[in-house]
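Please, structure for the following, as tokens.
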Amino acid sequence: MNELQIALALIGVLAVTGVLIYNRLQERKIRRQTEAGFTRPGRDVLLDDATEPDPSLRQEGGVFDTLMRKDPGAAPFRECKPQEPYLGDVGMEPEAAASSLPQAGENVQAAQPFADAVSPPIAADGREEAIEFRVALKNVDGMAADAFASVVAQTAALARAVRWLALPLGSPTWEELSPQSGRRYLEAQAAMQLADRNGPAARQDMAALCGLLRELARSRGWMVRCDDVVEAAQRAASLDKFCADVDVQIGLNIVARGSGVLPIARMRNLAEAAGMQLSDDGVYLLLDNRGEVLFMLGNREPRPFVHGNPEEPQTRGVTLLFDVPRVPDGLKNFDRMLALGRQFAFETGAQLVDDNLRPLTDAGIEKIRAQLEQIYARMEARGVAAGSRLALRLFS
């Protein structure tokens, strides 16, 4: 082998070595970039809070922005001013663990902004989310209705009822979620009311609802978001206090004078002539055009009114009852009840008295009206109009 051949062989060996070294360096560079993409993800403003929440106040797994924004300087439950509810401008939490496999027909979805989201369900009053703790789920390829059967059954055991709403794929209209419907849903919501006449919702019930749906989402590869349990519990307590402060019922009593009695038959005739209807509970109800009670008439003695009672018993008195926060146009309907009470008293020779059985004077009536005005002003300031859908839910 001459010198030229040796030189060419050396050049070839060096060239091949250089190529191998360059390829190895490129491979290591690509590996580092790939690993960095998984181990140090950039912050997504649609998925992350601006500040890290206190771990002691959050549920395991993190809780994202609540549906009801909170002003740290204000009371937990603020005035229910109208606002457009939304899903699209807060993130959902991907619950597909690496070791979890989706069920047949379900696709694992990575976290993504809701650029294609629609407005969440609202009824007559867009502020309903202010009185609820909500858990929202979404999957762009749809969620089978029957996948909800187990959690719907489990939430029925909670102390507070849960209402279920869902948006079918390809539909603009929200509907009641039914596990037996055979539908596929783009989005679904489970909502627990924060307060009613039984008191505030318990934090453990809200946490249990969130936990059940997180587990469902994790097993199916769906996105899920829970309201903040701590904030919702504070809102529930404040809301319950507000409700207790304005939850008033006014009774007007028509009682016989002296040792006399009132004929129930006559009372029944007067009630029916005024448009009142006898309920299964044995009280007469005056209903509005929605079927809601404006006021009611009941026997002061433990004996209900009944249809066609041949004995036509007598009574010492009857009571007209007005449920203040549940009645719209409150002053107008109070005056309507007052006029009927006066008519009853006049036509039966009875007297109109208050709950302490003292004669109801004009001054006493004006005092009641003034109290009603104060209650209605407080309810309006809170954004809960008397007799509204929101009020009917809270005072139930």
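The two ends are 104 Å apart (CA to CA). The helical segments are 3-39, 149-155, 203-220, 229-246, 264-273, 330-348, 362-382, 389-394.
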